[in-house]
């Protein structure tokens, strides 16, 4: 098992946003679904150290990582993708990959200096092979701001792959992305999962995402209320009630 939470609990003031959440992420693609406000983003932010847990534990490869700072969690091989920030949008696709590793712990200027000193051919070659794998190598010299939302998701995955990543955690990776590109992104995620990288994904677009994932947890009001293998979870009456019911 790669990642596990045990009774993870998080309060915002009096409000219990995570209520003893226990999940396991194995070497595969794990999905978290649930209505708006059910605690999905809070869960991944707490797992990755961006929020402090008030109770419970997080383990990664049998090592406890509860409440470690984000850069320490990153060093263990967990990457949480974020929407590409403003400064990164001004850089080219290749530059985004080249500074990826340092970007999680240092300033961009520092990481530029460091990577241009140490980098050389090796990093550039690695970046190009990743861009090629993702099918966006022809855009290597394009500024990130000129890419579509879906292409930016691929750049984010590319940045994660530049680091020694074992688990990639993504919050709504295909939100706002056209169906064709969404399928292309999920196929790449599936391929990477076959190569041994685990994924923990939060996503609302079940029509697209369910065919690619191996296991799904359903959250409601800060708790895990069901789990199962893909599409059959939608037949669970409790899930229909809290999740599909909430969608109207
Ligand atoms: N920083 C915060 N301070 C106070 N309350 C918060 C904070 N972040 C989230 N919440 C609350 O915690 C609950 C869970 O929020 P969260 O963002 O985890 O939901 P979600 O399942 O990701 O929803 P969505 O599908 O809309 O993204 C919500 O009621 C939200 O208003
Ligand atoms: Mg969310």
Notes on the protein architecture:
- It is a single chain.
- The protein has a six-stranded mixed beta sheet with strand order 7-8-9-4-10-11, sandwiched between helices. Strands 1, 2, 3, 5 and 6 form a five-stranded antiparallel beta sheet that branches.
- A hairpin with a 2-residue loop joins strand 1 and strand 2.
- The chain is of the alpha/beta class.
- The mean pLDDT is 89.
- Helix 7 packs across helix 8.
Please identify which CATH superfamily of the largest domain we are dealing with: P-loop containing nucleotide triphosphate hydrolases
Percentage of helical residues?
A: 25-40%
Judged by helices, strands and strand pairing, the structural class is alpha/beta
The CATH C-level name of the largest domain is Alpha Beta
CATH architecture of the largest domain: 3-Layer(aba) Sandwich
Strands side by side in the biggest sheet: 7-8-9-4-10-11
Kindly estimate the percentage of residues that lie in beta strands according to DSSP. Answer: 15-25%
Radius of gyration: 18 Å
